[in-house]
Amino acid sequence: DAGITQSPRYKITETGRQVTLMCHQTWSHSYMFWYRQDLGHGLRLIYYSAAADITDKGEVPDGYVVSRSKTENFPLTLESATRSQTSVYFCATEGVTYNEQFFGPGTRLTVL
Amino acid sequence: GQNIDQPTEMTATEGAIVQINCTYQTSGFNGLFWYQQHAGEAPTFLSYNVLDGLEEKGRFSSFLSRSKGYSYLLLKELQMKDSASYLCAVRMSGSARQLTFGSGTQLTVLP
């Protein structure tokens, strides 16, 4: 039981294609987050969710869409991928009683 | 928005002590976190400070001064496995648990 998983772990796609990155947790944590990590920028928040059906934009939301119909899943969709979206994407969760975010293993996305 | 500063790179010797500093903007501050990230892996939680003072956890300690907008992570008895990136992150009051991360400090431990 891995706690938080991401799929795929690696993805190569082409400019203009739609891509969905999956995030699944088994802890029933209320909060879920999507970050991207690029050299020189550290981790930047794309979108977050405080509970099922509650989502909001982070620092860099343009070009991304999220949904959260179930507590355990938080998919991130790139509607029309661009080269600038080549990055490592991390999903994270946090429970209400915690002060700690738990990170998934990451998805390395390359947009050609 | 929040602006977090930490050194880009640091080098230290095995067995030594190293201090990684982090400064942030104090307005609306509601907690400071340190994460460790090995190359190619996910960040893992090291510490959380919300009150002034030193929190010790084994070889790692974290210090916070809220009035100065300053924190440091202290690593003692350095080991080769401590070579990693150390990320400072700040939580703002009123946020839904969002964190703003610094760019990270790449620590290299030499034999």
List key phrases describing it:
heterodimer; A: 112 residues; mainly beta; seven-stranded mixed sheet; four-stranded antiparallel sheet; 11 strands; 0% helix; globular; B: 111 residues; six-stranded mixed sheet
Question: What does the model show?
Answer:
The complex is a heterodimer of chains A (112) and B (111). Chain A has 112 residues and is an all-beta fold. Chain A is 0% helix and 52% strand. Chain A starts with a strand and ends with a strand. The model of chain A has no long low-confidence stretch (mean pLDDT 95). In chain B, the strands form two sheets. In chain B, strands 1, 3, 4, 8, 9 and 10 form a six-stranded mixed β-sheet that branches. Chain B has a four-stranded antiparallel β-sheet with strand order 2-7-6-5, with no helix packed on it. The termini of chain B are far apart. The mean pLDDT of chain B is 95. The A-B interface holds A 31, 33, 35, 40-45, 48, 50, 56, 58-59, 90, 94, 99-106 and B 1, 31, 33, 41-45, 48, 50, 87, 89, 96-104.
Strand-helix topology:
The complex is a heterodimer of chains A (112) and B (111).
Chain A: E1 4-7, E2 10-13, E3 19-25, E4 31-38, E5 42-51, E6 54-57, E7 64-66, E8 76-78, E9 87-94, E10 102-103, E11 107-111
Parallel strand pairs in A: 2-11
Antiparallel strand pairs in A: 1-3, 3-8, 4-5, 4-9, 5-6, 7-8, 9-10, 9-11
Chain B: E1 9-13, E2 18-23, E3 29-37, E4 44-49, E5 53-57, E6 60-65, E7 70-75, E8 84-92, E9 100-101, E10 105-110
Parallel strand pairs in B: 1-10
Antiparallel strand pairs in B: 2-7, 3-4, 3-8, 5-6, 6-7, 8-9, 8-10
Number of beta strands of chain A: 11
Radius of gyration of chain A: 13 Å
Main pleated-sheet profile of chain B: 6 strands, mixed
Count of distinct strands of chain B: 10
Give the structure's gist in a few sentences:
The complex is a heterodimer of chains A (112) and B (111). By secondary structure, chain A is mostly beta strands.
